[in-house]
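Issue 218. Parser rejects a valid record. Input:
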Amino acid sequence: MTHSVLLVSLAVLVVIAFWVGKSRALSLAGGSSKNLHSLPGYYGLLTALWCAIPALIVMSVWSLGQDAILTHLVTTSMPTMLQPVEGGSQDLLLNEIRNVVAGNVPFELARPEVVTAAREYSRLQGIGDLSLAALVLVVALFGLFVVRARLEPTLRARNAVERIVELLLLACSTIAVFVTLGIVLSVVYESLRFFHAVPVHEFLLGLDWSPQTAMRADQVGSSGAFGAVPLFLGTLMISGIAMLVAVPVGLFSAIYLAEYADRRLRSVIKPVLEVLAGIPTVVYGFFAALTVGPLLRGIGESVGLDVSSESALSAGLVMGIMIIPFISSLADDMISAVPQSLRDGAYALGATRSETIRQVVLLAALPGIVGGVLLAISRAIGETMIVVMAAGLSAKMTANPLEAVTTVTVQIVTLLTGDQEFDSPKTLAAFALGLVLFVVTLVLNVIALKVVRKYREQYE
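Output the parser choked on:
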């Protein structure tokens, strides 16, 4: 039985458990829900939860350990047959067996001993799947009958259900925290490995970026240079151009929609602006590469400027258009949420409409506006596809927006694309760049919190 069929069977059993619990509670109460401590649905939910949760826990634990157990059983049952090919490793051999089991490699093309091991693996996997299905269904039925036997009219079913839901929410929060912590620790660990090979000052202050390292002692032209300043400069340049486009346009459009536009016009313009956020970034990349880039080059040639077909200006302009909705939507919501009493007070003191917007409304909505701007900055820093297609991959130490540059995220993708050796500084450099992005994002969040706290104390 496959996992999908098992999940469907468990879902059907949970629905049955809900009906059994609800019907049992009503029958104990003589058919009247007034004699129950909680609504009948809570008794059904309690039964369904005790049917589903233990079974899902068993299924998750089994799935996590099944592959390791099967691998151990296969390798110990045929130790003499399972010998790696010359120059290979046990992991490569096991990967070959799994490919044969999955059907990625036909049986006819595999070695005889690998075919034998694959058939043994498939047999054990079938036994394991049947055992898992039986165990999960038994655990689910056991939970159903235990809770059904304990149901009574005075049982606080609602309290029990709410307690279980609270524990589930706590478990989800804990998982989210540990996942985040695991990501951070893994990035820090790999970055430390990189900094053992490349000094920190060379990485943060170096002016040359050429991560190609030599694979052989006699190889030339691939000594490797890991100075990330050109990447930082390119990221700041493109993000700065994008923010110069997005912040004024997004903020002014939000002010117009919230303070000047009538309801009918607002209902048309606001959805059109938000449509920009739903366009895939690859479409923006094509637009930048096929339209904006050649247009800027033609304009530059007409005035005597040398504009590259792939330039920071092209990528920044298109990226700015892409992130306009992030600023306009949040700023619009924050401006609309400012109490009307603040506007009325300004009007009563003789302020004009524009003065009220500048000196009262925008200051009151400043925390939300700053949050939207910082979200847009984070979005611009993390963008990859537009930069690849419109700005290129060249890591140049330049402040000229008319030349081709690259960014941190683009280099991370480049370093981790294809077959890589995770012991080389070239690959580990991607984790160091990721750590820098993490620190920058953390600093932006701290700044946003300080701004929000400062102005909330003033206006709340």
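Fixed in the parser; the record now loads. Residues 3-155 form one domain.
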